[in-house]
Amino acid sequence: MRVTRNHESRAMATTSRQQTTLVKCVSVRPWLVYPGCDGPGGCHDLTLGKIYEMLGVEGSGSFYRIIDDSGDDFLYPVSHFTPL
Questions:
Q1: Which domains does the chain show, CATH number per domain?
Q2: Predicted TM-score of the model (pTM)
Q3: Which residues of the chain have pLDDT under 50?
Q4: Taking Cα atoms as reference points, which of 81, 79, 83, 53 lies closest to residue 68?
Q5: Three-state DSSP class for residue 4
């Protein structure tokens, strides 16, 4: 399960003049388990060692909003990245 925001707010975020924050993926360990799922997931669109754009910090500092390999932004645990 991924959490995404609507395209309208994403368009606003990409057109603002905020400094881009880059982070490096240091873990692709599955972290998300939910009822009806046979196995954990949540990191299918991350590549270990790849540099990603971080759009913000959410969930009381527990999650980064990352533009992942799918090209969309989703929430991932802070522990899966290191800031550059």
A1: 7-83 (2.30.30)
A2: 0.68
A3: 1, 6-17
A4: 53
A5: coil
